[in-house]
Amino acid sequence: MLIPHPSMLVAPQNTLGNDMEGQQQNFDGPLMPNQSNIPSEFVWPDNEKPCLVAPELKIPPIDMKGFLSGDPQTVSKICAEVSEACKKHGFFLVVNHGVDKKLIDQAHKLIDTFFCMDLPDKQKAQRKLGEHCGYANSFIGRFSSKLPWKETLSFHYSADNSGKTVEDYFVNVLGEDFRQFGILFQEYCEVMSNLALEIMELLGMSLGVDRECFREFFKNNESVMRLNYYPPCQKPELALGTGPHCDPTSLTILHQDQVEGLQVQVDGKWYSVAPKEDAFVVNIGDTFMALSNGIFKSCLHRAVVNNQIVRKSLAFFLCPNREKLVTPPKDLITMENPQAYPEFTWPSLLEFTQKHYRSDTKTLDAFATWLREKNK
Fold this sequence. Notes:
It comes from Sphenostylis stenocarpa. By secondary structure, this protein is an alpha+beta fold. It has one domain (40-374): Jelly Rolls (Sandwich), CATH 2.60.120. It contains ten helices and 14 strands. The strands form three sheets. It has an eight-stranded mixed beta sheet. Helix 3 packs across helix 6, helix 5 (165-174) runs antiparallel to helix 6 and helix 9 (346-355) packs across helix 10 (363-374). The radius of gyration is 20 Å and the shape is globular. The N and C termini lie far apart (57 Å).
């Protein structure tokens, strides 16, 4: 059921006027539903404009409880399903994951609370140019065209047990009043990290390597959590909530609210991934594609917007510890399948995608070329 956001019931002063073209933009989510003429910076080229109605992508619901049961027949079936999906497009669902529904619901409520604050309050956490954490209103300042119709808040999570990185972030950046935000999202990230490590066991077995191989690699992960807020857009046929991209990270665990928007490109055609309240959408990122020696695919995906209701999502991006060398296990390097990409550390790929390259299907190839030139 579509319930209009409260901000749609009032008519606040425009933050993006028709005379703003070419000037510095301000994107404030709760005020955007009233923009009847969206600025040209948000209009995507004809060959990239969204198809608002796309066929649903059939992706396997992976039963994590069944996988962890240890039943050989069940585990074998699940690994085969994951392997098939990840070789084709890198997307699957996880169900019976054991994550408390109350925790998920509370996290979604806090998304509303944060993004409905006044813009100056949100901008206390403004992301600095070249950095990947903080508040971003449509990546203004980073890109000059094809801007995404969204706001985000991203923050760092460390699994090395050295401190409460998420809680400290909210208190240090936004103040003591945000400690409960920090406590809630600290718990959410810890739960996501544990789930990600279980999924890494599954991916390892699906690739035919030791079950502990990737779990051990990501044990002390230094990951990123992102809150996404997509306000209604009066011309959704012209804009995109998130442009086509592949995640440069290792693994994404996404929880969508009940508003459709996620689309995945398979064999040149766009498909929608329908929201399922009891499931997480999982997809392979470029870093794990390199770890799998190109066997598992990082796939192009995007988010479309609508003209009726806010869409929200919670995205946990699993990343390795910054000192880990990203290189495939020896079992995945053969005469028939030699090492596809040079070894690297995650911070170098992050630098490349934040400062030098807008992520797409060729990110890893472009990064490999850049890395070789840099290391000469």
